[in-house]
């Protein structure tokens, strides 16, 4: 596998970090109300399939903010929903880690996909495998007591995982690094890593995200 060294890093440094009451490590832990019994293993295998989709080294790295509850939280892949993996809409496939019948009343039905995931791949699909995507905070930030809530990671959380992000970028050695959102930009600037900024596709940012990405990839 082209990204074998990066995968070994994830196995050694990322997957086994314990969840907290504010950050959920989707690669290590599960919640019986919404997750299958082997959900962490499924999510790790989904991420492995994403890594395996690279036949050459990616020259661009996109850094997002953190996993959302309907995307990476269940798929294991940033800006990706498990429904997209099952529909074979992307250059890699995967399995559903969520229960078909969750024990909570939720606004969405499994398999899950977020609007951000749809918007992201609607723009980025044509550029795969030239880019690799990850988040500056690798785990799902949630509000205590509400396991699938949405919360922007704090600056402290971003800085707390800066060393992991730094090592990932050291292994990837990209020609260009793109921050998707202000938290990602903050993290990269803290590490003194030159980056370009694009608007996050959520909350009405889809057009600015698409235009920003097109402009940047034209320069490569």
From TrEMBL:
Gene3D superfamilies: Uracil-DNA glycosylase-like domain (3.40.470.10). InterPro entries: Uracil-DNA_glycosylase-like, Uracil-DNA_glycosylase-like_sf. Residues 58-186 form the Uracil-DNA glycosylase-like domain. It comes from the Bacteria. Transmembrane segments: none annotated. Pfam families: UDG. This is Uracil-DNA glycosylase-like domain-containing protein.
């Amino acid at each position: 596998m082209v990204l074998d060294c990066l995968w070994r890093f994830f196995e050694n440094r990322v997957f086994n970090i314990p969840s907290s009451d504010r950050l959920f490590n989707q690669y290590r832990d599960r919640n019986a109300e919404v997750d299958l019994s082997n959900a962490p293993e499924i999510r790790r295998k989904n991420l492995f399939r994403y890594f395996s989709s690279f036949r050459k080294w990616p020259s661009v790295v996109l850094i997002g903010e953190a996993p959302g509850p309907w995307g990476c939280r269940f798929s294991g892949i940033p800006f990706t929903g498990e429904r997209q993996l099952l529909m074979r809409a992307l250059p890699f496939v995967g399995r559903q880690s969520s229960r078909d019948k969750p024990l909570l009343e939720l606004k969405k039905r499994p398999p899950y996909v977020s609007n951000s995931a749809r918007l992201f791949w609607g723009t980025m699909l044509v550029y795969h495998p030239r880019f690799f995507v990850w988040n500056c905070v690798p785990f799902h930030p949630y509000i205590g007591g509400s396991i699938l809530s949405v919360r922007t990671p704090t600056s402290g959380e971003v800085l707390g995982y800066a060393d992991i992000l730094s090592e990932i970028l050291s292994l990837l050695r990209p020609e260009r690094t793109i921050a998707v959102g202000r938290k990602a930009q903050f993290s990269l600037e803290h590490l003194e890593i030159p980056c370009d900024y694009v608007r996050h596709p959520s909350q009405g940012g889809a057009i600015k995200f698409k235009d920003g990405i097109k402009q940047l990839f034209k320069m490569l």
